[in-house]
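Weekly modeling sync, notes
Attendees: S.R. (lead), two postdocs, one rotation student

Agenda item 3: backlog of single-chain predictions. S.R. asked that every request posted to the team notebook include the full sequence so nobody has to chase files. The rotation student volunteered to paste the first one in as an example of the format we agreed on. Action items at the bottom.

Example entry:
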Amino acid sequence: MAFTDNFGNPKGFLGRLMLVAMEREHLPMAKWAFPQLEIPQSGKILDIGCGGGYNVRRLLEKSAGAKVYGIDISEESVKKAKKINRSEIKNRCEILQGTAEKLPFSDGEIDYITAFETVFFWKNIEKCFAEVRRVLKLDGTFAVINNYGDPKINWEKKVPCMTRYTASQIKTLMENAGFGEVSVSENGTLFCVKGSAK
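Predicted structure, as returned to the notebook:
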């Protein structure tokens, strides 16, 4: 496994190191994005590509009574996320291993879905967005938060498992998947795209 593959699917010792580094690097993005998210106080929230579980913990802190799920393709991420959120596991939190292409939820089960710094690693983004739309309740929200990165760097060459999308492209993908009221906010290379299930 190449070191760069750990960006999309952390594994082993290098993966564990990557999860620590990712939290440090992604903290400014989380601080910028969370004030823009209308976190529900009840129901079910899902963070796709939850990594080490830090945003799951933030979602738990910002919601008085919702159950928060985290899901990630990486076994190392799942272990770390369970550890970070151990006080709420079996209470208001559940961490699962899985993919965005096949979410383990019923149609219309989830009230709010976040995807922090993960959609660039989804191999079939159209299928994933359709799956997100399937599990969201009507009028539920899907929020994609990402850092486009330095435009002068060829990130796809540097990290072959990655495909970058602009905020505008994410907006179009959401609309094509059946989301309405899609809004975009940007701050330098950071962006947040939100849409409602219709």
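Discussion: group reviewed the output briefly. Residues 1-8 have pLDDT under 50 and may be disordered.
Action items: rotation student to repeat for the remaining queue; S.R. to check formatting next week.
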